[in-house]
């Protein structure tokens, strides 16, 4: 029998059953006391009382056992839960990386199981949140990586055999793996950017080539990929796969090759077109519509060709224009030959030389009519002569300028001669003042004529030495003409000197005849006859050139320039054969020297 039952039955002071259960024992004692009183009133025997107490003890044991079992089970569950939590914490810590995961901090000696489980549960929730966030980051990065990789490979993202972003090992969620994924994504994004840039360059080049060649850009790029042009579906991404880049490279190479072929074709058509334009002097209205195609002949300008200039229609139109001008050229060849010959004659006339006689108009027309020569070859021959004439003209330019200055000085000399013979030159008035100023300038210019001649002769001799041929001017050698002109001027000066001496003699004899002391009655005529006869004898004794000068002066109004004409200028009728009729002849006879007037007609200004 238990102690509690003995105390209740026999009135022994009841002691606490357990130190920790004093309150419960007091409650049980009160109930036993009340039960004892009831048993006494009822009259229960000792056996019945013991049997009842044993039953109570068994019942209490069953209750305690059940509670112990429940506590044991709860403890086991807590240990199991704690073990599972710690295992999951370990797994998550390993997956997330120990360096970036919070650690479980518990003390099993001072903390109960519930506290330990609660701490593990809180840490587990934190780790699960970290895993979910890390997993989402990796999933997003992996998804972007897979998307770019499939775009590079040219496959459709999400097709049956393509990798899916969620299908990857989640046992490694460390920062290292995340950084690796980020580095890989950055590399793929850079590659994508480079590929897009290359695609853009190829598409731009294709567009430029199609614009010049007159091809359909949209149709060509659609064959490569529908999303490469501006009018493509905005929702459809631009392809930058290996196959797209390879196809674009092939298209660019094909169009570049086609451009090269068409440039060659257009050049073959444009070269004769330009020649025909120059040959036929086509008006600007006809040339304007084909002006843009001539850009193919400019070196280094193929990239700047205008839109559609290499199209098949443009090339065909240019070829048709060449054929039209070729047919038109056959009917106008005579006119063109004569025009080119006239151009040659004008150039030669400006140089005062004779043109080549092998292509004279009469001979050229006869050759064309007879069919003995091809008009194009004749045109080429005349063009060659024109080129040589222009080269000759350029080399003679300096000398021709000096000749023109010399001729102008000679004209001023002739004008001054006429001015000095004008009796009204001293009249008052505006014109007389202007003529007086011109005469002053003319005397300065005439004084430079000898230096002009010497300079011109020296430059001409240098020219002849450099080219080993004479410098001809209107069929005569310029040096000979200049030398003849110099000699004529010297003879003129000599004649002037002699005339001045002759005038002095006449003046002297005239003064002697008029002296008063020499006059005598009845003998004035006889005594003055001898000096006059002597004067006539002196004149008769003068050189023939002087006598002819005086005679010519009396018959031509005082102009004695013909006396000093060089012998070459007195040639027969054939002296001027073969020269340009409109050109001024360059010889000593072409220059007006200051005339030597009659002795009685010399003015004071001429004698000074």
Which tags fit this structure?
608 residues, mainly alpha, two-stranded antiparallel sheet, 18 helices, 68% helix, rod-shaped
Structural description of this entry:
This protein is mainly alpha-helical and 608 residues long. Among the domains are: 262-394, no CATH class; 397-516 and 528-569 and 581-607, no CATH class. Helix content is 68%, strand content 1%. The protein has 18 helices and two strands. The protein has helices at residues 3-10, 22-42, 46-96, 113-153, 175-213, 217-224, 242-280, 284-288, 312-331, 333-351, 361-370, 375-421, 430-447, 449-467, 478-513, 524-541, 544-555, 604-607; strands spanning 472-473, 476-477. It has a two-stranded antiparallel sheet with strand order 1-2. A hairpin with a 2-residue loop joins β1 (472-473) and β2 (476-477). The termini are far apart. Residues 1-20, 157-163, 518-585 and 587-608 have low confidence and may be disordered.
Morphology: rod-shaped
Our Rg estimate from Cα atoms comes to 67 Å
Structural class: mainly alpha
Please state how the strands of the largest beta sheet are arranged side by side.
1-2
Order of helices and strands, N to C?
Answer: HHHHHHHHHHHHHHEEHHHH
- Low-pLDDT stretches are 1-20, 157-163, 518-585, 587-608
Secondary-structure blueprint:
Blueprint: H1 3-10, H2 22-42, H3 46-96, H4 113-153, H5 175-213, H6 217-224, H7 242-280, H8 284-288, H9 312-331, H10 333-351, H11 361-370, H12 375-421, H13 430-447, H14 449-467, E1 472-473, E2 476-477, H15 478-513, H16 524-541, H17 544-555, H18 604-607
Antiparallel strand pairs: 1-2
Helix pairs in contact: 1-2, 3-4, 4-5, 5-7, 7-9, 10-11, 10-12, 12-13, 12-14, 14-15, 15-16
């Amino acid at each position: 029998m238990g102690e509690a039952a003995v105390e209740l039955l026999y009135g022994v002071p009841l002691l606490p059953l357990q130190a920790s259960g004093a309150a419960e024992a007091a409650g049980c004692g009160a109930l036993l006391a009340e039960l004892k009183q009831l048993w006494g009133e009822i009259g229960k025997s000792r056996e019945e009382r013991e049997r009842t107490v044993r039953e109570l003890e068994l019942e209490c044991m069953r209750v305690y056992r059940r509670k112990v079992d429940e506590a044991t089970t709860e403890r086991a569950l807590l240990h199991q839960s704690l073990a599972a939590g710690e295992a999951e914490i370990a797994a998550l810590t390993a997956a997330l990386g120990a360096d970036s995961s919070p650690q479980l901090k518990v003390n099993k000696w001072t903390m109960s199981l519930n506290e330990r489980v609660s701490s593990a549960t809180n840490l587990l929730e934190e780790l699960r949140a970290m895993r979910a966030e890390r997993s989402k980051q990796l999933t997003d990065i992996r998804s972007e990586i897979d998307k770019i990789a499939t775009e590079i490979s040219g496959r459709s993202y999400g097709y049956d055999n393509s990798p899916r972003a969620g299908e990857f090992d989640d046992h490694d969620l460390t920062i290292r793996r995340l950084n690796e994924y980020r580095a890989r994504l950055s590399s793929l994004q850079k590659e994508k950017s480079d590929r897009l840039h290359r695609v853009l360059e190829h598409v731009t080049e294709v567009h430029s080539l199609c614009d010049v060649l007159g091809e359909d850009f949209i149709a060509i790029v659609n064959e490569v990929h529908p999303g490469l042009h501006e009018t493509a579906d905005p929702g459809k991404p631009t392809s930058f796969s290996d196959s797209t880049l390879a196809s674009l490279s092939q298209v660019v190479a094909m169009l570049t090759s086609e451009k090269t072929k068409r440039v060659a074709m257009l050049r073959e058509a444009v070269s004769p077109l330009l020649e025909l334009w120059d040959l036929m002097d086509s008006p600007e209205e006809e040339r304007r519509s084909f002006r843009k195609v001539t850009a193919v002949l400019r070196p280094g300008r193929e990239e700047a060709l205008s839109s559609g200039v290499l199209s098949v229609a443009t090339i065909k139109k240019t070829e048709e224009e060449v054929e039209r001008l070729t047919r038109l050229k056959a009917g106008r060849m005579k006119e063109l030959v004569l025009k080119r010959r006239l151009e040659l004659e004008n150039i030669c006339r400006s140089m005062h030389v004779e043109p080549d006689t092998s292509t004279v108009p009469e001979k050229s027309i006869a050759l064309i009519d007879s069919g003995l020569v091809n008009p194009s070859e004749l045109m080429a021959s005349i063009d060659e002569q024109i080129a040589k004439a222009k080269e000759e003209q350029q080399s003679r330019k300096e000398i021709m300028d000096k000749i023109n200055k010399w001729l102008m000085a000679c004209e001023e000399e002739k004008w001054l001669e006429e001015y000095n013979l004008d009796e009204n030159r001293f009249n008052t008035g505006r014109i007389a003042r202007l003529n007086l100023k011109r005469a002053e300038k003319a005397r300065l210019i005439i004084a430079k004529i000898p230096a002009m001649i010497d300079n011109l002769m020296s430059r001409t001799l240098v020219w002849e030495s450099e080219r080993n041929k004479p410098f001809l001017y209107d069929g005569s050698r310029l040096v000979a003409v200049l030398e003849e002109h110099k000699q004529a001027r010297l003879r003129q000066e000599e004649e002037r000197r002699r005339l001045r001496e002759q005038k002095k003699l006449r003046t002297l004899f005239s003064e002697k005849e008029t002296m008063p002391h020499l006059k005598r009655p009845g003998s004035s005529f006889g005594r003055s006859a001898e000096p006059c006869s002597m004067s006539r004898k002196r004149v008769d004794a003068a050189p023939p050139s002087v006598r002819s000068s005086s005679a010519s002066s009396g018959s031509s109004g005082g102009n004695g320039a013909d006396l000093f004409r060089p012998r070459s200028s007195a040639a027969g009728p054939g002296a001027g054969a073969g020269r340009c009729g409109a050109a001024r002849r360059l010889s000593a006879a072409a220059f007006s020297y200051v005339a030597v007037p009659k002795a009685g007609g010399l003015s004071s200004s001429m004698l000074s």
